[in-house]
Specification:
The chain is 34% helix and 36% strand. It is α+β, with helices and mostly antiparallel strands. Strand 2 and strand 3 form a beta hairpin. The longest helix has 15 residues. The two termini are 26 Å apart. The model has no long low-confidence stretch (mean pLDDT 94).
Length: 149
Amino acid sequence: MIRKADIKDLEACIKLFKQSVKTLCAKDYTKDQIKAWLGIDEEKWKEKFKNDEIFIYEREGKIASFISIILDQKILDLLFTHPDFASQGLATNLLDFALRNYPHNEIYTFASLSAKEFFLKNDFEIVRENEAIRANQILKNFLMKKELK
């Protein structure tokens, strides 16, 4: 079931994010890079949950995946799936659902090395390679764009 997120989902989504990054990104990033990536600002996440379009995919009574879109910036900010539910099509279904009423003609995302292939399969194109710096660690990612009809 897909539903709109609520602030009460914040803790579960942060936990899912951390599990996802630790498990699904371990082959593409070093332990130090993952540790830096996990060092999030929970206050900023609270703001996201108040201001962004966030949808949750529930499966077996748990949050299995979530997506966050910053509408005014045309940015798909977060899309993470719990490792137990990875490669089951949940993120694709969630992306399709979130874009169904999306008001713009294009959307951008910064895709990790681990997520790049997912976004390519979902009709995103690489705009450029990018480097994000977190806690003195360089995290390679890709600015990607999808044209919408």
